[in-house]
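My current task is to audit a protein record that another person submitted. My question to you is simply how this chain folds and whether the tokens agree. This is what I was given:
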Amino acid sequence: MPAAFTRKRERTEAEVKEEILNLLHIHEKQWYGILRSKLPEHYVEDAFGQVSLRLIEVLDQVDARTIKNPTAYIWRMCQNIAIDRLRKAATEARALVRYAALPQPAVEDDYKVLADERQRQMTLMGFLSKVLTERQLVAYVLRHGHDEELTGQEIARALNISYSLARKELSVAQKAVDEALDDPEVNQRLRDLLDDGR
């Protein structure tokens, strides 16, 4: 008579869900590393928070047992959230560029310091928009318009273009700005415009 066959117990959905969430926390350094490879440091903490929230949302909506490779699933989620964050930065930069082209409203004296700083930024954006294409300007703002610069690779991902094209756009933009500022008349006009806001 054949030996009794013992069947392995199927894990419950709750057990698999807990295992996947543990995987997120046990390998936290690995996920941070993936995010750091795609994003500037000041975005990484927020992006990891988004990964955690999105994973919890997914596990609340689907049977966790249907996720065949949880490590690959979390890896892909990190990649997607990093790309989403860079594209959001590009959208913000485009909004800034377009906002600079609009007439600026008068403000109350209580907000004068803030308004003066905004006016200087808009003056600079207006100047840049005269010497750069929109994509060059957005790339330039992504490179120089943040507390921490985006790298060429990050800008390429944000704009959904190749790294070589991003480098070219940044190079052309920097050259155009430098040439414009080398012209004493343009340089003085820009200084005058910026001084008017003070």
About this structure: The chain has nine helices and no strands.
